[in-house]
Amino acid sequence: MKTLADRLSQQGDGVYELHAQHINPQFVKVLKAIHFDRAFVRGEGQYLFDGEGNKTLDLLGGYGVFNVGRNHPQIKAALKEALDLDLPNLVKMDCAILSALLAEELVKRSPAPLERVFFANSGAETVEAAIKFARATTGKPALLSWENAFHGLTMGALSLTGCTQFRERFGPFLPGARSIPFDDLEALERELKKGDVAALFCEPIQGKGVYLPAHDFFSKAKKLLEKYGALLVMDEVQTGLGRTGKFLALEHEDVIPDMVTVAKALSGGMIPVGAVLMTKKVHAATFDRMDRCIVHGSTFYQNDLAMAAGLATLDVIDDEGLIENAAKMGELLKTRLLELRKKHPVILDVRGRGLMMAIEFKAPDGFFNKMKWAVLDKLEKGLFTQVVIMTLLDKHRILSQVAGHKLDVLKFLPPLTLNESDVDWIVSAIDQTLSDGNVGAGMLEMGINLGKHALTSR
């Protein structure tokens, strides 16, 4: 039998061709167009390495999966131990030990009265579960979410996702799913007055664009929801487990929701796992009789490897002070980037919490610079930021992402292991990138090529 090492060594640079043949040829085209067709062979902490040992700083973090860093030895050891113990995994007609222990640890770290836990296999699955639990609790069909929200790509979660590029061709969506403007209490009450709303689903920080609502939004929204008999569900799939400098981002707000969804980082980046934290009232509305004890679940939820990864992840977060580090490094990075804004007027805003950070760009000063911006914007809105991202990777070995389709917003979701040297690396790279005539000739050329590709591939 071939080992994994044998299989990996035989492919070399052919992996992109294999993906183009058998998985997703359009994605391969995109990666090549934006110069992201790299061959990383190893990951460690906040870094990726190619075959020559060159180090790249990962600010993408698997879309927020690697809070504890890539390939953490403690997570690996926990998974190996779980395998070596030959546990009676997925017996189903039993109460598994590891899921009980992980539930206990999650409840310990969460505000009362979030005392019940339902496990799932992904963030989207946690949202699907929360939809069902909200309807069972309230007896109402309608579900509210913010415009431009992202809650997942399965059909129920997609019905709450406002990003239009993910919704095209997949309708009709879940009946009763309606969107309201971001951070708009008046719009929320107008919908609640219809009397059919089961729940409002919100991200504490909207991932697409990294937008923060007014500080008192959630406390006021919760009062409105209670008034009209609806629930508040906070989607912490991306913001949870220390990302914002608190275990849960809701801790920055004066509110306790009825349900919280977590996933991504709970896995340690190794095994898919998610969880819904909820009140006893919400849980009992679904699982209220013995004949309803298994009315919602899935084949692999509560599997031992996922639970072992979750337990080890929580230990690493505590042992290494990663929540505190996220707060400290986030504040340092934000301060340094705000200083950079004084030098580069093309930076419109710097925002975020902890190590969920964004830089928003605007048209630069000067006639010729504005013309260059206009050329990029006409070809495809948001291309300026994509060109910045390409330059950061090509010239500075920093992997990052645009914060949403057609947005001029650069987004950072690095591992919470980021250090001061990394912050220096980021700030210096952005400074140099923006100093090249704001949109230098090389950057403009890449942008035009990218725009042509976008137009010809439609």
Structure keywords:
18 helices; four-stranded mixed β-sheet; 458 residues; alpha/beta; 2 domains; Aspartate Aminotransferase, domain 2; Aspartate Aminotransferase, domain 1
Q: Can you characterise this structure?
A:
The protein is an alpha/beta fold and 458 residues long. It folds into 2 domains: 34-68 and 321-456, Aspartate Aminotransferase, domain 1; 73-319, 3-Layer(aba) Sandwich (Aspartate Aminotransferase, domain 2). The chain has 18 helices and 15 strands. It has helices spanning 4-11, 15-22, 25-33, 61-64, 73-84, 97-109, 123-138, 155-159, 164-167, 185-192, 217-227, 280-286, 304-319, 322-343, 367-379, 383-396, 420-435, 441-456, and strands at 40-44, 47-50, 55-58, 116-120, 142-146, 177-180, 197-202, 231-235, 259-262, 274-278, 347-353, 356-361, 398-399, 401-402, 409-412. The model has no long low-confidence stretch (mean pLDDT 92).
Approximately how much beta-strand content do the residues carry?
5-15%
Name the CATH superfamily classification of the largest domain. Answer: Type I PLP-dependent aspartate aminotransferase-like (Major domain)
Task: Specify the number of helices.
Answer: 18
Helix content bin: 40-55%
Gross morphology is globular
Number of strands: 15
- Provide the number of structural domains: 2
Please state the CA-atom Rg, rounded to the nearest Å: 23 Å
